[in-house]
Please model this.
Amino acid sequence: MHCPFCRHTDSRVIDSRTTDDGTAIRRRRQCPECGRRFTTLESASLSVVKRSGASEPFSRGKVLVGVRKACQGRPVTEDDLAVLAQRVEETIRQQGTAEVEAHEVGLAVLEPLRELDEVAYLRFASVYQAFSTLEDFESAITLLRAERDATGQEPTKASRGTD
Model:
């Protein structure tokens, strides 16, 4: 690590702490040459490989854009969406690989979105899974009902449209 002040090629770590969400490490460093202190932030990179083969850094913002469209007009808050995006990133990072297929990101969105709002889930799934007929929607709805009945759950708050 080069010192940002004198460009010396070495530095000494004085303190290390994880960030609030645990995805990065904040290190306080000191340059042995000039004695000045500086902070670095280290995080593991996560890349998404698109269908075209191009690779780009994972972005919670892109997850939010896609999910926000599915939640348009639904009683879902920005905080709910932020938590969902964080859950998606955690799920992807738990796979333990530096690169994931874009398809895997979409799969990671489905479950937390279903828990958040069933209608938004159907909207997202219909695009993501390329529903082309009414039967595709019917089978997805039947599956949702069967899962809900099997677990004895009530419909999600957002799906009932109540607060």
Q: What stands out?
A: The mean pLDDT is 88. The longest helix spans residues 134-151.
